[in-house]
Amino acid sequence: MSRPDSISGGCLCGAVRFTISFPKAEDWPPKGNGICQCTMCRKHSGSLLPQNCSFPKSHITPPLDSNPTFKRYASTPSAHRGFCSTCGSALTFQYAKEPDVIEINLGAIDEEVLCGKKDEAKAWEDEYGIHVPRIRGSGWGKELCYPQYHIFAENEIPGVTDGFEGSKYLQDRVERKAFAGTAVDLNK
Length: 188
Ligand SMILES: [Zn+2]
Ligand SMILES: [Zn+2]
What we know:
The longest helix has 7 residues, at 39-45. The protein is mostly beta strands. It has a seven-stranded mixed β-sheet, with helices on one face. 26% of the residues are buried. It has a single domain, classed as Metal Binding Protein, Guanine Nucleotide Exchange Factor, Chain A (Beta Complex), CATH 2.170.150.70. It is globular and about 55 Å long. The protein contains three helices and twelve strands. The protein starts with 5 loop residues before the first strand and ends in a 37-residue tail after the last strand. The structure holds zinc ion (ZN) (2 copies). One zinc ion (ZN) binds next to helix 1. InterPro entries: CENP-V/GFA (IPR006913), Mss4-like_sf (IPR011057). One of its GO terms (molecular function) is carbon-sulfur lyase activity.
């Protein structure tokens, strides 16, 4: 599978910028990728479906902590969440026991990486608005963002956040079985 040398991301105001590299074939696509519906992830991100992906900290440059506007909030004694103190963008999740791994909030990845480059020359307008096609194959969103798991599925909102394919878990994944469907349909 082809892979990018690196992808870029950052916060809303641009004060925090970073690059994630994929030096080896096994680095792509990234595997620790999931959607978490726990209340802490929701509160921190402001999203109903927060999605993070883990990367080796050594593959992220410059180190996030080297940026003076990057701050951390200890959401529990065992984990902290990173954000930009200028614009408030929620950026990371990290377990204290895993100092070499950091989870990046996938919404912080740059648009061209997620969606592909815009082909402005082929733009057209109709009653729905302006359509700007993307250059096929110029983005990495599908490989990068397909969620491998959904956790804290007990917090699904029926009819709103329960309609997703893929393995689901109640609480975290540790030593628990995955299921499909909706949490409310699990049998007693
Ligand atoms: Zn910012
Ligand atoms: Zn969570």
